[in-house]
Design a protein that fits this description.
The complex is a heterodimer of chains A (338) and B (49). Chain A is mostly helical and 338 residues long. Helices cover 77% and strands 1% of the residues of chain A. In chain A, strand 1 and strand 2 form a beta hairpin. Chain A starts with 7 loop residues before the first helix and ends with a helix. Chain B is an all-alpha fold and 49 residues long. The chains are: A mainly alpha (338), B mainly alpha (49).
Chain lengths: 338, 49
């Protein structure tokens, strides 16, 4: 009997034939089945291991590359503000501060706005309008970061300089803490502008993921709450958000990850000044912006090593943020018994 | 629920406020998109001519 292209599963499921030829053919097919199974298992295992190897390789090369700078400056690399390539004095606190503050501003704006847009799309928007608005919001994610950069530099920053920043300075000028946060001349570019650009950039990620997880909430839960007399806000707050919290936090973390690592748009509008200022309107820098700006000019091992050390710090910050998010989710799940 | 009770009024107010915020947030997101795209098209076309 010739098995030919007959599916191997059919052969495997066929009862044991009485003839010797049939039994040999069946054993051969089963052997082939086993071999392909083993090959598939090894292939998937190799793919999974490749991810770990690549990750390990990146970590090792970052540590190796940053060793000269870390040996020279030690722990002071993390808290020194000076960044002087001429005298080869490097400290990372200004880029770390810029990275954290711009990401914080972005998340403070993008998270509530993104969640409210998702709420609108799932609960308030007419059916015929949901798709076009959803696509339009997601279109924001499709705009390359360089476009955000030039738009931010040529359109957004001058607008902020002429209209928004003078207003903020005059309004908060007499309020103790806020007068420090919004002090100084309105440059247009600066930490605040970079935070706003980042907020626009991460908004579609938070929105689209939140909308998807809100849509996954079983209608029976929402209908039961509406049936009890809950308002739309109460349904969103007490039914949808708790049910979809894992997905929502995942979306927020995705947005935060992008905000932490965003390079081009931030480089255009942050001002690229290696200093920490109490004012959000002052120019600053981020880790990724510093690396992008200075890598081509980095002559000498120590300068290059300092930039690689900045990359290592960004990697560690991202890792810490993701770990905190994971812990937060675990504690949240443990509390509600999820 | 009594429509004249303070609790009902409070819940209703909160709902109107948050739904207004949802409309506002969507308007804000769409406005950003329109401004960015309009600026790109406008300045891009004027650069071509």
């Amino acid at each position: 009997m010739k098995w030919g292209r007959q599916p191997v599963v059919d052969v495997a499921l066929q009862g044991t034939g009485s003839s010797t030829v049939s039994q040999i053919d069946r054993a051969r097919v089963l052997q082939r089945l086993r071999l392909s199974d083993v090959a598939f298992r090894h292939l998937t295992r190799a793919a999974a291991l490749a991810v770990l190897v690549i990750l390990g390789g990146i970590i090792v090369s970052l540590i190796w590359g940053s060793l000269p700078a870390l040996r020279t400056f030690g722990f002071s690399f993390l808290h020194e503000e000076v960044w002087n390539p001429v005298t080869e004095q490097f400290g990372a606190i200004a880029p770390i501060y810029g990275t954290v503050v711009t990401s914080l501003i972005a998340m403070l704006i993008a998270v509530p706005v993104g969640l409210f847009i998702a709420l609108f799309l799932t609960e308030l928007c007419p059916m015929w309008l949901r798709r076009p608005i959803g696509i339009a919001i997601e279109l924001l994610a499709g705009i390359p970061s360089i476009i955000y950069g030039i738009w931010g530099l040529f359109v957004f920053a001058p607008f902020l300089q002429q209209h928004v920043q003078p207003f903020l300075i005059s309004v908060f000028g007499d309020i103790p803490v806020l007068s420090t946060l919004f002090a100084g001349p309105p440059y247009g570019i600066g930490v605040f502008t970079a935070g706003l650009i980042l907020a626009i950039m991460v908004l579609p990620f938070i929105t689209s993921i939140s909308r998807d997880v809100f849509e996954a909430v079983p209608p029976v839960l929402k209908e039961a709450a509406y049936g009890l007399g809950c308002t739309t806000w109460e349904v969103a707050r007490y039914v949808m958000l708790p049910y979809a919290r894992v997905g929502v936090i995942g979306g927020i973390m995705l947005g935060l990850g992008r905000a932490l690592g965003e390079t081009m748009a931030v480089t255009f509008v942050i001002g690229n000044a290696h200093r920490i200022s109490g004012s959000l309107l002052a120019p600053g820098t981020t880790i990724s912006a510093t690396i992008a700006n200075e890598f081509t000019e980095a002559v000498g091992d120590l300068y290059t090593s300092a930039l690689i050390a900045l990359g290592l710090i960004l990697f560690v910050i991202t890792f810490i943020v993701l770990s905190i998010a994971r812990l937060l989710l675990l504690r949240l799940n443990a509390r509600v018994g999820g | 629920m009594n429509p004249t009770s303070p609790l009902y009024a409070k819940r209703r107010r909160r709902n109107v406020l948050t739904m207004g915020l949802a409309y506002g947030a969507t308007g804000l997101g769409l406005t950003w998109l329109v401004i960015i795209l309009a600026e790109l098209v406008w300045d891009g076309l004027s650069g071509l001519s």
